[in-house]
Amino acid sequence: MYNGLCVYPGSFDPVTLGHVDLIERASVLFPEVVVAVLNNPDKRGKFDVAQRLSMLERACRHLANVRIDSFGGLLVDYMRKQGAGIVLRGLRAVTDFESEFQMAQVNRQIAPEIETLFLMTSPHYAYISSSAVKQIASFGGDFSSLVPAVIIDDIRNAYR
Ligand code: ADP
Fold first, then answer.
1. What's the CATH number where 113 sits?
2. Enclosing domain of residue 15
3. Which of 18, 29, 35, 44 could form a Cys-Cys staple with 128, CB 3.0–4.6 A?
4. How far apart are CA 41 and CA 146, in angstroms?
5. Span 39-76, pLDDT tens digits
């Protein structure tokens, strides 16, 4: 099943330097990485899917083997359609563990041929989350050290 394709799924609402760090490290480990934005009609983000894709495209432009995509429905269905065998997720703190553990077990139950792999955050980025970025931006604070420089204006404009 494994064809060298690794899928990094998430909300990326918006992409942060923590995400980009993970994507850069994955791009060294795997021949091809797809960053896949979950299009979840039940969980509206601050940014719509088209905006999130555009921000990811610009943040990952320097990585030749990284592709940006979106998907709806079950992750394992998307993985099977892509012929991908590896899901990549990131771990920041123990607080991430429980939900990630549950999700990985459920996915294993319904698609045993798909493996979930975890990369530990780089300590430098451990405290960065999309929600922290949004919170700071909503109060007019300086979030510029938390996100790729190429998306700073997108975020500022969203909170104008
Ligand atoms: P989701 O809503 O699916 O958790 P996110 O966009 O918040 O999507 O995160 C996608 C993945 O990236 C998750 O596995 C999350 O734990 C991981 N992640 C988020 N921020 C960081 C960070 N600063 N360092 C490492 N991994 C991270």
1. 3.40.50.620
2. 5-158
3. 18
4. 27
5. 998 888 999 999 999 999 999 999 999 999 999 999 99
